[in-house]
Amino acid sequence: MFSFIKDKNLYSIAERVFSGERLSFEDGLKLFESNDLTAIGILASYVNEKKNGDKVYFNVNVHITPTNICVGTCKFCAFRKNKGDEGAYELSIDRILDKMRNMNLSGVTEVHIVGGLHPEWGFDYYLEMVKRIKEEFPDVQIKAFTAEEIKYIANRGGKSIKDTLIALKEAGLTSMPGGGGEIFDKDIRKKLCPDKISGKEYLEIHKTAHRLGIKTNATMLFGHVETFAHRVNHLIRLREAQDETGGFQAFIPLAFHPVNTEIGGADYTTGVDEIKTLAVSRLMLDNFYHIKAYWIMLGEKISQMSLFYGVDDLDGTVVEEEITQAAGARAGEYMPKSRLIRLIKEAGKTPVERDSLYNIVRIY
Ligand code: V47
């Protein structure tokens, strides 16, 4: 049998991984329940190396968060404010452009834009934002708006999801981030974010984007009130959606940060759970090319180590992240490109700078 495996529950899973077979719900559960992290990592690395060789992708990006004022009620969010609250802010489009002018955008290929659901902003604000950014910064790709925001923008404009996405794409939207996935299970969603779009709607919006030629990412918020079964269910539903459209680029497990949130009794996730979640994601999502470690939430050390456990993508230089900072982030909010390259090289991998669509910018 496989001498690297200590947990005998993993034998048949290893056989299936090495013969390229799809893993089942039960397999996913056994993987999460196992503490044989070395074996799980070897399996996840095997799959990753078949897909990506020794390449590890990273990008040079900046974040813009247009507002923290939000009509949403997500209990895990420490970032949202009501209008008039201390610390509430809203950026006009001119302010957003000013902010971008003041950032050093030389070499930046992506602006990542997500924010609150502002009670007064309409369809035109969002469209105009994308248009004016594109006009002034034609070389910066715009990865913007979660599925939740797309639904909100569509509602504000009295338009369908499809027409909203078409308009945003014409205005200059390159791709969509994966935020808002949380955990798809209905009961968990009721506890976490009762007013948010359902898991089914999230997937439908992403699939609509894919059919219009807009690539997207997917996320899963883990480490709060969910069980392993909920995580596996989430991964399988993503895998099924990807079978239909093939439009997901990367999957990003987001480690829950508990500070200032309304999730009682929750704590920070641990290194083992974080690494295991990344590795199991790699094994379950056989039709995704990229598993991304978001170092803002995982820390740079866990993110670097995850490169031995199936991860092939590190996001990113970032600059001015706000959502995790509000919830007790411990990793900082900016990493120079030289540091990302060093993290990847010291893991014995090849750093590949990419743009939002995974076109290669430069290999280091
Ligand atoms: O949707 C909110 C999550 C997401 C907390 O697609 C929290 O490339 C942890 O989706 N603790 C936004 N997480 C971030 C996001 C993202 C980040 C980087 C890259 C990409 C991409 C997407 O952050 C939200 C929510 O799921 N979140 N509060 C918290 N307390």
Automatic annotation (TrEMBL):
Organism domain of life: Bacteria
Coiled-coil annotated spans: none
Keyword Nucleus attached: no
Entries under PROSITE patterns matching the protein: RADICAL_SAM
SUPFAM superfamilies: Radical SAM enzymes
EC number of the protein: 2.5.1.120
Binding site for [4Fe-4S] cluster: C70, C74, C77
Entries under PANTHER family matching the protein: AMINODEOXYFUTALOSINE SYNTHASE (PTHR43076:SF7), FO SYNTHASE (COFH) (PTHR43076)
The protein, known as: Aminodeoxyfutalosine synthase
Species: Desulfurobacterium indicum
